[in-house]
From TrEMBL:
Residues 15-203 form the Phospholipase/carboxylesterase/thioesterase domain. InterPro entries: AB_hydrolase_fold, LYPA1-2/EST-like, PLipase/COase/thioEstase. Belongs to the AB hydrolase superfamily. AB hydrolase 2 family. PANTHER family: LYSOPHOSPHOLIPASE-LIKE PROTEIN 1 (PTHR10655:SF17), LYSOPHOSPHOLIPASE-RELATED (PTHR10655). This is Phospholipase/carboxylesterase. One of its GO terms (molecular function) is hydrolase activity. Keywords: Hydrolase. Pfam families: Abhydrolase_2 (PF02230). It comes from Chryseobacterium arachidis.
Length: 206
């Protein structure tokens, strides 16, 4: 199965905006759900782009399952994020003015896409996620973030995302010259908290 490109939009029009925020929903969520979160972020003058996963999920199994079990959905999902980025670039928005926000499965997908395509972006907030695969394949990750700010927030424990993978992801991003801030909340549960929103605004959408 591959995803059908379906990008929901909000905020400023791509023609008018100087900045774009790409929002990636979680498993069982929707583009509209994650777009509604933007009202809590300092992104009033951004164009908002949220691709919709076909059948509501980006890939079928856990993000720490063997990669081949999640194919061909995973490769198609990564390609969908690439096409969403290209949509912003084609509208004249520079890469350093493209931002990302992902939650859960969407955070994993955001981080995997960024680590495979590191360059100077505006910034990213990934809540409860890490790079994808049973084992981390460091050879997949290339490029230089040129100090792109990236915020990782998570709960420990989290039923879906082991905190060790969040730390490992943070280390990879730092090696690739990202400005990483990580915050682990004890027993918070699988959701986004107010402080994570505030930190995203302070560190990324400033």
């Amino acid at each position: 199965m591959s995803h059908i490109l379906d990008i929901k939009t909000g905020g400023e029009s791509l023609k008018e905006a100087e900045k774009a925020l790409i929002m990636i929903h979680g498993r069982g969520g929707s583009a509209q759900d994650i777009l509604s979160l933007s009202q809590h972020l300092n992104v009033k003058d951004y164009a908002l782009l949220a691709p919709q996963a076909t059948n509501g999920t980006w890939y079928p199994f856990s993000f720490i399952a063997p990669v081949e079990q999640n194919e061909p959905w995973l490769s198609s999902a990564i390609e969908t994020i690439g096409k969403t980025v290209q949509t912003a670039l084609d509208a004249g928005i520079r890469a350093e003015n493209i931002y990302f926000f992902g939650f859960s499965q969407g955070a994993c997908l955001t981080l995997e896409f960024l680590a495979r395509n590191a360059q100077k972006f505006g910034g990213a907030a990934a809540i409860i996620g890490g790079v994808i695969g049973e084992k981390i394949n460091r050879e997949n990750y290339k490029g230089d973030f040129v100090q792109t700010p990236i915020f990782l927030g998570t709960s420990n424990p989290d039923f879906h995302v082991p905190v060790e993978r969040v730390y490992a992801t943070a280390n990879i991003l730092k090696e690739m010259n990202a400005e990483v801030t990580e915050k682990v909340y004890a027993n918070f549960g699988h959701s986004i908290n107010q402080e994570e929103i505030e930190l995203a605004n302070e560190l990324i959408f400033k």
